[in-house]
C-alpha cells in the first residue's frame, strides 16, 4: 500500500464535491472524481495538481458502476481508500402532493440509495485502509423536516440515520463514519425549479433572507469531519441556528415550517 492518501468523491464535478477535491488535493491526496457528467469531471480535474486525480463517469444508482469504478480507483491509488465521500445528490422543492412519482423515486434513489450502495460496496476497501472514513453529505434539512421540500428532507434524515448506525456498526473495523450537514450553498442544486412555481430554490432562499455558505467553508469542514471525532458536522449559520432551534425551541421551528421557506 502506498503512502499517498486517497479520497473518492461522488458528485465531484461541481459544487461541494469540487471544493472538497481541491481541499484534499492541496494536501497531497490522490482524488477520484466521480460524476454523471464527464465534462464537469474534466473541469474539476483541470483545477487540481497534475496527475493527482482520476475520472470516473458513473451514476450512483448503478451497482455495477460502483463496483467497477471503485475497484479502478483503488487499483490506481495503490490499494488505498482513506475516504469515501458520498456527496452526489439532487434537490427537489415544492408541495409533495404536486410532485411527480418519477421525481420522488429519482431523488430517493440518488440521495439515499446511492449513499447506501457506496457504503456497502466501499466497505471492503475502507476496511483494508487503516484510519479510513466514510463521509456522507446530509443537510441542515436533516435536522428538522423542511416544509416545501419533504422528500429532499426525508432523504437527508435517512443519510443522517445511516451515518449514526454505521458509526457504531463499523467501529470494530476501524472505520469512522461522519456526515456533513450544510445549510444553503450556492451550487447548481439551487437551480432546480420548485414544483408548482416559476421560482428556483435559489430565489426562494434569497427571498427568505437566508445566507449562502461559501464552498471553501464546506471544504474546510469536510477536512475537519474526516479528521475529527464528531459524527455530524453542521456547516453555516442557518444550519447552526436550526440545530439550536430544533433542540431548544421546537415550538418556534414548527411555526416557521408551517409558514414555509
Automatic annotation (TrEMBL):
The keyword Oxidoreductase applies. It comes from the Bacteria. Pfam families: adh_short. One of its GO terms (molecular function) is oxidoreductase activity. Keywords: Oxidoreductase. NCBIfam families: PRK08267.1. Belongs to the short-chain dehydrogenases/reductases (SDR) family. This is SDR family oxidoreductase. It comes from Stakelama marina.
